[in-house]
Fold:
Amino acid sequence: MTIADLLAGPPAVISAGVDLMAEALRSQAATVTSVDWRPPVSEGYDPAALAAVLADPRTVAANALAASRMLATRAVLIDVLPASEALGLTPGQFCHAGPPITWERASGPMRGALIGAMIFEGLAADAVAAETMLAAGTLADGSPISLSPCHHHHAVGPMAGVISPSMWLFRLQDVTTGNIAYCSLNEGLGKVLRYGAYSEEVLVRLRWMTAVLGPALAVAVRARAVGAAGPVDITAIIGQMVQMGDEGHNRNRAGTLMFLRELLPDLISSGLPAAEVAEVARFVSGNDHFFLNLVMPAGKLMGDAARDVPGSSVVTAMARNGTDFGIQVSGTGNRWFTGPANYPQGLFLAGFTADDANPDIGDSAITETMGIGGLVMATAPAIVRLVGGAVPDALATTTRMYEITVAENPAFPVPILEFRGAPTGIDVTTVLRTGILPQINTGMAGRRPGTGQVGAGLVTPPMVCFTQAIEALAAAVVE
Structure:
């Protein structure tokens, strides 16, 4: 018997849990349907820690404040510039995705991306030389090599997320707080550096991006920012793309084309050679993921706006380095809570199987942190087959995400849910109380350095990240 059958018939009761009440009702000739339901249980955490956080008189107001700051963020694109200028990187300094990692623990795609960046920067003649120096921790002249998370520089990077000094970055600003965030330019799909590939075709593309794409975008973005139209409103484009079939993580087709529409007049009037303008327009329009690298720093700005609210259990960052998955929480500042990265489940490109895949990797889970990506799967039915599953699964996923978030973002409405705002502000306490983990849409990188992309799928964080966070929050209550 279905719920619809029950509603269409005479008064009836649905009973969950112990059978005592159900039997009593049946004895009175009531129609009773028993449901085998039990409270969800998240294993491995201290119930006393969760109770302490829930009893903290600051928590409700703190979470409301953190969420309100996320929702008030308005990200605009104000510049494009080299990482040496934006982040102050010098030769031998590299940023990477996820929580801190060393070369010894780095995954295949992370190693591949670092090797490629070494060659790209002219610090190594080939992969063997690059790997030797990275393992030793020094360049050929003896100067040190340093690795640090993009998040520690107000930046984010997709997949391996490697940023080296010569790479050009988008610079976004939150008009509400003045905060700044950065992200690299998107290379496209397949054999690209962020998936750990470093073949000659990868390096040629990176050199073109440095010589042509970055400078051309900089001219157009700067002209647009000081013109009558003002800087490109990235938050507004995200809101529109969510209503047009993009979820902002694995599908950014509408966002990419809207961004190109905004910037194209300034590209055309830039005075750059027509052939270069055409080349840039062709590259951007042909790269459906180009806008992802603008969504991500917008998400970084939202997460950063919610940071450092005492007592708040709202997640401000989720990131993976291919070995570890890490989260950061508003009430505990920049501290990372980590666990082993899971393997995505989904579909593989021709010639690849699950044996070729690396564990989850990339800062792009900032899209889910900001309330889109896997959290609004229901907005992007076209992507369901790409990551595995069916349209009803996507709808159910988004509905479930409202159970673990503290706010709804009206700037990112979900059409199929009557334009309900996107579920925003993942709450550590409700993740533990419900056992529901945030859903993440992601690409899959090959586990061997140099492979590139092998597929796309779905993944969740390890629960241990949230159990660690709740213990830290509980310790802060005691203090």
